[in-house]
Design goal:
Elements lengths: L1 H17 L5 E6 L4 E5 L6 E3 L3 E4 L2 E4 L3 E7 L4 H14 L5 H7 L9 H10 L2
Antiparallel strand pairs: 1-2, 1-6, 3-4, 4-5
Helix pairs in contact: 2-4
Length: 121
Amino acid sequence: MKKIILLLTLLVGALTMQADDYAYLVFETTDGAKVSVPVEESLTLTIDETTLTAGSQIFTLSKLSKMYFSVSDEQATSLYTFIINTIMNPSTDEDDIKKADINGDGKVNVVDIVTLTNDGR
């Protein structure tokens, strides 16, 4: 029994140490959008009834498909894809529209891609 507990303790410790090399925790939603949250010493994950909070980001649990560690910020590339998908397949979901409306004009269009590019995101 002591051997099993020692083995489990070592495995948990090894898994925890591997995450130290990754700078971002990436959340991917069911529509393919990605949000990268910088991993800091004080990053807190909180799960409420229908939401997950990671730092200052809040996600609806039913819309999350993946969560993983990454060495790079994957949000910018996926944001281009998300905006293009929203332009090609207009969404009525208010959260999707707000997320894709980079320049804040209340519409999702090519201007948002230009704004994203000029912003350096």
